[in-house]
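Hi F.,

I've been meaning to write this up properly since the lab meeting, where we talked about keeping a consistent format for the predictions we share between groups. The idea is simple: the sequence comes first, exactly as it goes in, then the structure tokens exactly as they come out, then a line or two of notes. No screenshots and no reformatting. I'm using this chain as the first example so we have something concrete to point to.
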Amino acid sequence: MLPAALSQVLFCSLVLVIQPGLSSATLCSAEFECGDAADNLIDVVHDASTEELCQKMCSLNANCNYYTWFEEDSLCFLLSDCQDQDKPCEACHTGPVVCPSTIPPSTTNHPENCASPSDPPNGRFDCDASSKECHLLCDPGYVTSGKSSVSCSRYSQWSQDPRQMSCEKAVLLVTGGDGGLQFVELYTSTNSCVTTMPSLPDLRGMHSLDYVDGEVLLCGGYSSRLSCLTLQPNNTWTKHSNLTRNRSSHSSAVYNSDLYLIGGGEANTTEVFRHNNNNDNQWQLAWNVPEGTDGCSVTTAPGTAIVTGGHGCTKCAYQFNLQTGEKTKLQNMNEGRTSHGCAFYQFDGDDYILAAGGWDGHNLRSSEVFSLKTGKWRIVGDLKESKRGLQLAVVEGGKVLATGGRVGSWVDSVEVFDVEMEQWSQGLPLTHRRAYHGVTAVPGTRFGC
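Output, unedited:
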């Protein structure tokens, strides 16, 4: 940051020497402000009589990448970044220190036109030309270390450098459920993490738990059907938002860093939480689910989720277009299932969905796999225990886990699925017995693992 006295000296020099030679052709500003982030403000220069002068002051500060010039007050704000560019203002002008046509190519991957960035290990970018956004999609068992979305600004610059975005091996976050309604734990197959976490502020079971765009969201459940919680950096939970419908036994899916909640025992709709332009944390109706569903869902590809089983049709499997709600019937499962677990995994270059356990008039041990390549289900190895209310997840670079469930009572058991041999083996147990709980893959570095 420039000291105030030095700013005034430079300002006087600019008035006498630089101002006459500047041309408006060097400007590429627009009438908006750069949000409310306090840490992006480097300095404030008073008596900046022209925008050209404000831009030049920015160019003389090595940390300045943007400026905002307030015409009526002749104030010049020097800024390190400008991530939020959707706050309009009157008589203010914001622009980059250098217009895009002269930004050197080394500043980002492709700053001239925000072309698709290079894919990191264990992930790939999915870019949307209409929204000028890219979303980092990690392979099963991996998650983003922080935010998954990056946008291209009106100056054809990335909101953050995509080369700094990465996919890391995931650990498992486990919340609530019968037997552990307020208990939270981290799970690794080698017990390499501190497992105990601060409790939930209320009772949660049959809820959803998702890691989306760098944030953990817990929504609904039979004790708190309308509310969502979020996990803070200090690992405590706070209120995030209110849903549009009561939801429990619902499922969830992610597309373009937006979270979709599908159906539930009392809801015949799907609602979406959009990560962009949503400072009030509002949920919106996405599309209707006329027959309703309380099946188990997985996100399989950008904009696509597959829902299996549920009370409406225990053997059914449907593919949903998350943007439109269009539903496509897939081959039926071999066995009817409710309260089962499901997961999307990859093996030898192919994509699969695993459905395991559940209820069909009795607890189930059976498991089956759906190949997205062939469009067919096949029976695989049985679980070690017949159970319902279990949850499946993929963590640690591709390890498929089945956690908890109800046998006679709640259990703390964890089973590991061998994706090559298609058999289950016993893993280390959870800290708490639980069923109908929530699980999601999260970055281990977030919790010091």
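Notes:
Confidence is low (pLDDT under 50) at residues 1-25, 101-112.
The CA atoms of residues 206 and 263 lie 12 Å apart.

If this format works for you, I'll send the rest the same way.

G.
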